[in-house]
Protein backbone atom coordinates (compact mmCIF):
# COMPACT_ATOMS: atom_id res chain seq x y z
CA UNK A 1 0.00 0.00 0.00
CA UNK A 2 1.43 3.37 -0.89
CA UNK A 3 1.93 6.20 1.57
CA UNK A 4 -0.96 8.31 0.22
CA UNK A 5 -3.48 5.45 0.52
CA UNK A 6 -2.23 4.62 4.01
CA UNK A 7 -2.71 8.25 5.04
CA UNK A 8 -6.26 8.31 3.60
CA UNK A 9 -7.20 5.24 5.63
CA UNK A 10 -5.75 6.79 8.78
CA UNK A 11 -7.75 9.98 8.16
CA UNK A 12 -10.97 7.99 7.67
CA UNK A 13 -10.42 6.12 10.93
CA UNK A 14 -9.59 9.37 12.73
CA UNK A 15 -12.80 10.92 11.37
CA UNK A 16 -14.82 8.05 12.83
CA UNK A 17 -13.10 8.37 16.20
CA UNK A 18 -13.39 12.18 16.27
CA UNK A 19 -17.14 11.96 15.62
CA UNK A 20 -17.56 9.68 18.65
CA UNK A 21 -18.64 6.76 16.49
CA UNK A 22 -19.10 3.76 18.74
CA UNK A 23 -18.43 0.13 17.91
CA UNK A 24 -22.16 -0.65 17.73
CA UNK A 25 -22.59 1.84 14.88
CA UNK A 26 -19.80 0.16 12.95
CA UNK A 27 -20.83 -3.44 13.58
CA UNK A 28 -24.64 -3.21 13.68
CA UNK A 29 -26.96 -4.38 10.88
CA UNK A 30 -26.58 -1.90 8.03
CA UNK A 31 -23.54 -0.33 9.67
CA UNK A 32 -20.18 0.76 8.37
CA UNK A 33 -18.66 -2.72 8.26
CA UNK A 34 -21.48 -3.97 6.04
CA UNK A 35 -21.09 -1.02 3.66
CA UNK A 36 -17.32 -1.51 3.60
CA UNK A 37 -17.81 -5.18 2.70
CA UNK A 38 -20.18 -4.24 -0.13
CA UNK A 39 -17.89 -1.58 -1.59
CA UNK A 40 -14.74 -3.70 -1.38
CA UNK A 41 -16.36 -6.67 -3.10
CA UNK A 42 -17.91 -4.51 -5.83
CA UNK A 43 -14.61 -2.68 -6.43
CA UNK A 44 -12.74 -6.00 -6.65
CA UNK A 45 -15.34 -7.34 -9.10
CA UNK A 46 -15.01 -4.21 -11.27
CA UNK A 47 -11.21 -4.62 -11.26
CA UNK A 48 -11.59 -8.26 -12.27
CA UNK A 49 -13.90 -7.22 -15.12
CA UNK A 50 -11.38 -4.58 -16.28
CA UNK A 51 -8.70 -7.27 -16.32
CA UNK A 52 -11.00 -9.75 -18.10
CA UNK A 53 -11.96 -7.31 -20.88
CA UNK A 54 -8.58 -5.61 -21.12
CA UNK A 55 -9.84 -2.05 -20.66
CA UNK A 56 -11.35 0.21 -17.99
CA UNK A 57 -15.00 1.10 -17.69
CA UNK A 58 -16.11 3.85 -20.13
CA UNK A 59 -13.13 3.08 -22.38
CA UNK A 60 -13.47 1.39 -25.72
CA UNK A 61 -11.36 -1.42 -27.15
CA UNK A 62 -11.24 -3.34 -30.42
CA UNK A 63 -12.92 -6.25 -28.73
CA UNK A 64 -16.36 -7.63 -29.53
CA UNK A 65 -16.89 -8.53 -25.87
CA UNK A 66 -18.02 -5.64 -23.66
CA UNK A 67 -19.72 -4.88 -20.39
CA UNK A 68 -23.39 -5.78 -20.32
CA UNK A 69 -24.77 -4.26 -17.14
CA UNK A 70 -24.93 -5.86 -13.73
CA UNK A 71 -26.81 -8.50 -11.81
CA UNK A 72 -27.79 -8.20 -8.18
CA UNK A 73 -26.63 -10.86 -5.78
CA UNK A 74 -27.39 -11.32 -2.11
CA UNK A 75 -24.43 -12.47 -0.02
CA UNK A 76 -24.71 -13.81 3.49
CA UNK A 77 -21.86 -12.75 5.77
CA UNK A 78 -21.33 -12.79 9.52
CA UNK A 79 -23.07 -9.43 9.80
CA UNK A 80 -26.15 -10.21 7.74
CA UNK A 81 -27.17 -10.13 4.10
CA UNK A 82 -25.33 -7.79 1.73
CA UNK A 83 -26.79 -6.90 -1.67
CA UNK A 84 -24.00 -6.49 -4.24
CA UNK A 85 -23.87 -5.70 -7.95
CA UNK A 86 -21.92 -8.17 -10.07
CA UNK A 87 -20.80 -6.95 -13.53
CA UNK A 88 -21.64 -8.98 -16.65
CA UNK A 89 -20.10 -9.22 -20.09
CA UNK A 90 -21.84 -9.82 -23.43
CA UNK A 91 -20.30 -13.25 -24.04
CA UNK A 92 -20.99 -14.44 -20.49
CA UNK A 93 -17.35 -15.50 -20.08
CA UNK A 94 -16.61 -13.45 -16.95
CA UNK A 95 -15.85 -15.79 -14.03
CA UNK A 96 -15.15 -13.79 -10.84
CA UNK A 97 -12.35 -15.07 -8.62
CA UNK A 98 -13.11 -13.21 -5.38
CA UNK A 99 -16.73 -14.36 -5.44
CA UNK A 100 -17.36 -17.33 -7.75
CA UNK A 101 -20.71 -17.72 -9.46
CA UNK A 102 -23.46 -19.31 -7.36
CA UNK A 103 -21.60 -18.67 -4.09
CA UNK A 104 -23.90 -17.13 -1.47
CA UNK A 105 -21.96 -17.37 1.79
CA UNK A 106 -18.96 -15.16 2.37
CA UNK A 107 -17.68 -16.14 5.81
CA UNK A 108 -14.61 -14.60 7.37
CA UNK A 109 -14.34 -11.71 4.92
CA UNK A 110 -15.00 -8.98 7.47
CA UNK A 111 -12.33 -10.31 9.81
CA UNK A 112 -9.83 -10.64 6.97
CA UNK A 113 -10.40 -7.08 5.76
CA UNK A 114 -10.04 -5.63 9.24
CA UNK A 115 -6.88 -7.60 9.96
CA UNK A 116 -5.31 -6.63 6.62
CA UNK A 117 -5.96 -2.94 7.17
CA UNK A 118 -4.81 -3.17 10.77
CA UNK A 119 -1.52 -4.58 9.48
CA UNK A 120 -1.30 -1.89 6.79
CA UNK A 121 -1.74 -4.27 3.87
CA UNK A 122 -3.93 -4.05 0.79
CA UNK A 123 -5.59 -6.72 -1.34
CA UNK A 124 -4.36 -7.16 -4.90
CA UNK A 125 -5.67 -9.77 -7.30
CA UNK A 126 -3.57 -10.39 -10.41
UniProtKB/TrEMBL annotation:
Has UniProt tagged this entry with the keyword DNA-binding?
A: yes
For whether the record's keyword set contains DNA-binding, the answer is yes
Q: Record's superkingdom?
A: Bacteria
Q: What is the protein's name according to its record?
A: Mutator family transposase
Tell me which Pfam families the record gives: Transposase_mut
Family according to the record = Belongs to the transposase mutator family.
List the keywords (alphabetical). DNA recombination, DNA-binding, Transposable element, Transposition
Q: What does this protein do?
A: Required for the transposition of the insertion element.
Instruction: Tell me the lineage of the source organism.
Output: Bacteria, Pseudomonadati, Pseudomonadota, Alphaproteobacteria, Rickettsiales
> Where are the bilayer-spanning segments?
none
GO biological-process terms attached to the record: DNA transposition
Which Gene Ontology terms cover its molecular function?
Answer: DNA binding; transposase activity
Amino acid sequence: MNKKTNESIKQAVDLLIDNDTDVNTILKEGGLLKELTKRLIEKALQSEMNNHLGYDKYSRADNDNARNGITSKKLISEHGAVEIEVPRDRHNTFEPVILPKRQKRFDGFDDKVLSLYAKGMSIYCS
